[in-house]
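Internal tracking record. Fields below are filled automatically when a chain is submitted to the structure queue. Please do not edit lines marked as system-generated. If the sequence contains nonstandard residues, flag them in the REMARKS field before resubmitting.
Queue: standard
Priority: normal
Entity type: single polypeptide chain
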Amino acid sequence: MAVRRTTSRQRAASQLAPHPRVREQAMREKPMREKPMADIIATSLEEDIVLGRRHPRERLIEQDLCDRFNTHRGDVRLALFELEKKGIVQRIPNRGAIVRDLTPKEVMEIYAVREELEVMAVRILPFPVVPARLAELEKIQERHAAAIDNDDMLTVFYANLDFHQTLFELCGNACLIEAIKTLEQKVYGIRFYANALPEALARARRDHNDMIEALRGSRRDELIKLTRQHLKPSPQAYIRAYERRFGGAGATK
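SYSTEM-GENERATED OUTPUT FOLLOWS
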């Protein structure tokens, strides 16, 4: 499912080092040299998939990964196991691991549940939202907007995650927050298809700003409407690309 990208994005996609956000988090937790190699491999593969460097059904060959990360198969297998738990990678007996491809039906089912969970979160979050939390969201959105302007798709991805995690944390329901995060991880691999479209990025930027203003004004109905519409572009872009590549047979796998 090749999607046309700009030259600058192609240059960005060729950089295989962990993203600065990952490095900063690792340094806060422990020195980078002490971070488990399996975690480094898992993060790098996850970013490859998010950026469209690896595509649905592409094989993840253990020896190639050992060579790339200068490590042994145990680390690679542990990394693949962690990605399989998230629903990003699929391991097939006697064939090895592949980037998981979600069928259009699976994508629509996941997004139907995501929509209801995310709407539930914004429906129960208490108003008014304290200024400090609004300021936090504004700061994250500034980072998201700057990344769009700089064509930095990996920071766009991470800033978008931060924005929505911070938003849904306002509901205060730990079980609901965890359920939203789990489903969000399952569709990491489809984000690339919408992020490749400038109009989708512009819409995401507008939606985030409008969500902040709806929170500021305690306008719950508007926030619910924005939450629903914000989820539409990613599955639509992925399904179009999926059907172009695999056709009707692939779509009903």
